Amino acid sequence: xxxxxxxxxxxxxxxxxxxxxxxxxxxxxxxxxxxxxxxxxxxxxxxxxxxxxxxxxxxxxxxxxxxxxxxxxxxxxxxxxxxxxxxxxxxxxxxxxxxxxxxxxxxxxxxxxxxxxxxxxxxxxxxxxxxxxxx
Length: 135
Prior knowledge:
By secondary structure, the chain is mostly beta strands. It has one helix at residues 30-36, and strands at 3-7, 14-18, 23-27, 41-47, 51-53, 57-62, 68-73, 80-85, 92-96, 110-112, 128-129.
């Protein structure tokens, strides 16, 4: 089974995941824009098990539908590397696609909060868009 390692900018915080992504998507919500410092977040979900190396600082954010998301970032360089949703932490993890530093990483399949997408951002053909979170 293929494994991939994502890391922060300084390499102190890493996560190793196994297999292919359960899904790859982008989020244009304002919280993700602020969190990443970019105009969207690109995330890939992976099934457990996964291994975390290094020390992470956590930030918990409550989503629009009440879910609580635990974002883990490096306390040294500040890079967000991954997050889990409370209640589902053992089953999957969402990893920042950029943390893999792999230009051949699979493209997104879904785009959420498309109502907040910057007009100049063009999505790849075939991406399913949702105005907000899918039901």
